[in-house]
Amino acid sequence: MAMTPGDPLERATAEMRDEASSAAWLDVSETVKRRVSGIVRPAASLVAVTDDGSTRWADDGSRVLVSERVLLPRLRRSVASDQRAVDDVRVRRDGDRCVAVEVDLVCAYGSDLAAQGDDVHAVVSDELRDLLGPDPERDVVVRVVDVTDRDPRDD
């Protein structure tokens, strides 16, 4: 839709451009930006390790870090199935190293809960190894915290 001279949208756009340069708008804009940036929850970063357990280094000489904002959603997606869903997932750390991951599951009624737990343990261990590297000391704890007769992903 092209704007025609005298079009209300064109006039409103021109007025907004004129308003945008006012000092009051700049004050409001800065306040909004500050408040929005305060809403974003900072995420911790976890150090990745090599096969021998030492810190993994990137080609540019920096440590390889993985944000929990990357790790936690990936774990949730990899665990989800029509038989189970993650209710909660938590990372325990020692400094910047992941020492344990705790996964709370909701499972479908009638599913083999022990098998679901074993499978989730294996999936989470594989994902952690892929993202953070091998760590024989890292613990994975899986708990079934609820059972539902619906698709667990819908709860």
Secondary-structure element series: HHEEHEEHE
What is the number of E strands? 5
Number of helices: 4
Low-pLDDT residue intervals, each spanning 5 or more residues: none
- Name the strands of the widest sheet in spatial order: 3-4-5
Could you tell me how far the N terminus lies from the C terminus, measured between alpha carbons in angstroms? Answer: 43 Å
Q: Report the major sheet.
A: 3 strands, mixed
Shape call: flat
Please indicate the percent range of residues in DSSP E strands (runs of 2 or more).
25-35%
pLDDT averaged residue by residue = 86
Chart the SSEs and their pairings.
Elements: H1 8-20, H2 23-39, E1 45-47, E2 65-67, H3 68-79, E3 84-94, E4 97-108, H4 113-132, E5 139-148
Parallel strand pairs: 4-5
Antiparallel strand pairs: 1-2, 3-4
Helix pairs in contact: 3-4
What does this structure look like?
The chain has helices at 8-20, 23-39, 68-79, 113-132, and strands at 45-47, 65-67, 84-94, 97-108, 139-148. The chain has 155 residues and is an alpha+beta fold. α3 (68-79) runs antiparallel to α4. It has a three-stranded mixed sheet, with helices on one face. A two-stranded antiparallel ribbon has the order 1-2. The mean pLDDT is 86. The radius of gyration is 24 Å and the shape is flat.
